[in-house]
Amino acid sequence: MAAFSYAALDSLGTEKKGVVEADSTRQVRQILREQGLAPLQVRQALAPQSGGGQLFGAGRAATLKVAELSLITRQLSTLIQASMPLEEALNAVAKQSLGAGGSKKVHTIVLTVRSKVLQGHSLADSMADFPRAFPLLYRATVAAGEHAGHLDLVLSRLADYTENSHNTRQKAKLALLYPCLLLVMSIAIVSGLMAFVVPDVIEVFSGQGQSLPGLTLALIGLSDFVVNYGLLLLLTVVMAVLGLTAALKKQDLRLRWDHAMLSAPLWGRFIRGSDTARYASTLSILTSSGVPLVDAMKIAAEVVANSRLRQFVKAAAQQVREGGTLHTALDHSGYFPPMMVHMIASGEASGELDTMLERVAQSQQRELDNLVATLIGIFEPVMLLVMGVTVLTIVLAILQPIFDMNQLI
Question: What is the CATH T-level fold of the domain 150-409, as seen in this structure?
Answer without folding.
Answer: Receptor-associated Protein (1.20.81)
